[in-house]
Amino acid sequence: MIFRTAATSAALAIGLALVGAVTGPQWDPVPVTDHLEPSTPDTTIGGQGPDVQPVGTYAVQETPVVVQLDGTSVDGIVREPLDAPEGLPGVVFLHGAGTGSADEAFVDVATDLASAGVVTLVPSKRLDTYTTRHRDYVDMADDYERSVDLLRARPSVDPERVGLYAESEGTWVAPVLADQDQDVSFVVLVSAPVVPPRQQAGFAVDSYLRNTGVPQGVFRAIPRAVGMEMPGGGFEYADFDVTPYLARLSVPTLVAYGTADPSMPVEQGALRIIADAGANGNHDVTVRFYEGANHGIKIDDVMVPEFPRDVSAWVQGLPGTASAPPTVAGGQPNQLYLASAVPNPRWYGNGDIVIGFVIVGGVLLVVGPLVWLVTGVVRRVRRTPHPAGRLAPGLRWPLVGLAVGSVATMAGLVVYLVAVARLALDYKTDSWVVQGGWIAVRLLGLATVVAAAFIINRLSDLRQARKAVLASPEGGGVVVRPATGVGARTTLWATVVGSTILLVTLAYWGVYQLGI
């Protein structure tokens, strides 16, 4: 009995492992072998000239403004140096992902630039056309163009020296705006993903998981989650490609990354910008890496002081600083893997199907016992002498184990992934959660498989016994059915089908993988 159960359980586990392997793509990122070598650790921008003022030279005046957009308006804040000469350079700030209020975003760097003699405008992000599911980077460029026009009209600003400062998601928008408005004077790209959003998401998830120390088996979930169509539709922007716009970028460009930013392909991004701009004959690209800085060019929530110093010097010194050597300077970046195309899942490529399967499986596990309960109540009310049905001996508890185990494993997987995500986003590790949690989920999954093995073996025994009775020449004996009555039969097969759906889904997400 023990050997038979073990053999059946092993066969089921291997079968689920095969199902998980063939129903979705694997994850095999390409390692970075040739690293970008900065010429010097000193990020100072050379060739600045006598007109370049350091940060802190001027007091800063803040002026609230309203930027009129097509169909709405947004607030903004202009920061200007007091008692500075007119004809100053101007910078419009483009937000990263998420909401962005003018009085909360870019406060430090916008103020620092203004104190050095650069007029800055931080508009609030337009949110009526910006959601998690939908955003259009070309339309966003049109909106930011209104802020550029507003800044050009300021009396203290030289309209021919107005450029863009874009961070993170905004770096997909800035090249579009620079392509549409040929009068944009320069572009500053901070923490630029460069690759399409879906590729950047796959890269970031991989990097976060590696930093957290998750087991290798968890990485299989990356292409299956990132590569599928999200439940409910939308997310068309996930495949937006900024490359054609970068290839047409013809203005001086400053690129900045923090070496401790795990979410961006820092070396690949810098090389791509240099190559794409160079293909257009634009060799005025300056790259700076800030040692130990994160995505916001900060260390311990404090902006690296050299960063606003370098940006303000570069902006004020243009055009002389556009090609000032060295092209690449700062800390040594260490990108481990390339950001590349995320494989698309085969049969689970639609997120609605993934969620639908889980819902259907869960509903079936509820429907069976509910039908049995209702049938029993009805029979009692009507005082029907026949019972609502019963399961064959040896099936009840394995069936309970299968239902509870499949639901518990699915819930455990969700809880585990959420816990890992929180650790990853907080840059923390916890071996009890990361390693122990994965082991616990897989053990739950194997226990569920054992319950399924009991059921399969018991059903096989009942079938063989039934054949023996029917084949008996005497025609005697009692045929024991797996379940009698509508309620019991519904419970049996609804539980089997519902649990099978959940087990296949768990296999897809890697719970049963055996290195296959």
UniProtKB/TrEMBL annotation:
GO terms for molecular function: hydrolase activity. Keywords: Hydrolase, Membrane, Transmembrane, Transmembrane helix. The keyword Transmembrane applies. Signal peptide: none annotated. The chain crosses the membrane at residues 353-378, 399-425, 437-457, 491-511. InterPro entries: AB_hydrolase_Est10 (IPR053145), AB_hydrolase_fold (IPR029058). The keyword S-adenosyl-L-methionine does not apply. PANTHER family: ESTERASE ESTD. This is Alpha/beta hydrolase family protein. It comes from Oerskovia enterophila.
